[in-house]
Amino acid sequence: MNLRGKQKRFLRSKAQRFRSKFSVGKNGLTEAWVSQLDAALNNYELIKINLQQNTDVTTQEVKAYIEDHTDIQVVQIIGHVLVLFKESDDEDKRVISAQVKEI
């Protein structure tokens, strides 16, 4: 699903109250980390991740890696925090994506 501007604004407003569920540390980006991230997005559809101070990667590198290796979309980047969205594979957990489609 390609997101339009209104849909991204909606997702940003929903994610404002969230806490980060994942972080990128000194180990950087690995396939195992991406698969765990993908599994979490199948449950939640919208999450925040943050980059720890000891990481060697930048937010742009994380964004590029995630978008190149998965179908996860980066909705927003603020400082060291990224907001990620992916429609759940489980139809019962598609609450946020159903709201996004109505916009």
Structure description:
The protein is α+β, with helices and mostly antiparallel strands and 103 residues long. It has a single domain (5-102), classed as YhbY-like (Translation Initiation Factor IF3, 2-Layer Sandwich), CATH 3.30.110.60. Helices cover 43% and strands 21% of the residues. The longest helix is centred in the middle third of the chain and has 14 residues, at 31-44. The model has no long low-confidence stretch (mean pLDDT 91).
Summarize the structure.
With 103 residues, this protein is an alpha+beta fold. Helix content is 43%, strand content 21%.
Indicate the topology.
Layout: H1 5-15, E1 20-24, H2 31-44, E2 46-51, H3 59-69, E3 73-78, E4 81-85, H4 95-102
Parallel strand pairs: 1-2
Antiparallel strand pairs: 2-4, 3-4
Name the strands of the widest sheet in spatial order: 1-2-4-3
CATH architecture classification: 2-Layer Sandwich
Residue-averaged pLDDT: 91
Using the alpha-carbon principal axes, give the shape.
Answer: globular
- Estimate the helix proportion, in percent: 40-55%
Strand content: 15-25%
Corresponding CATH superfamily: YhbY-like
Main sheet: strands, sense, barrel: 4 strands, mixed
Main attributes of the structure:
103 residues; RNA binding; RNA-binding; RNA-binding_CRM; alpha+beta; Translation Initiation Factor IF3; YhbY-like_sf; RNA binding protein; 43% helix; 4 helices
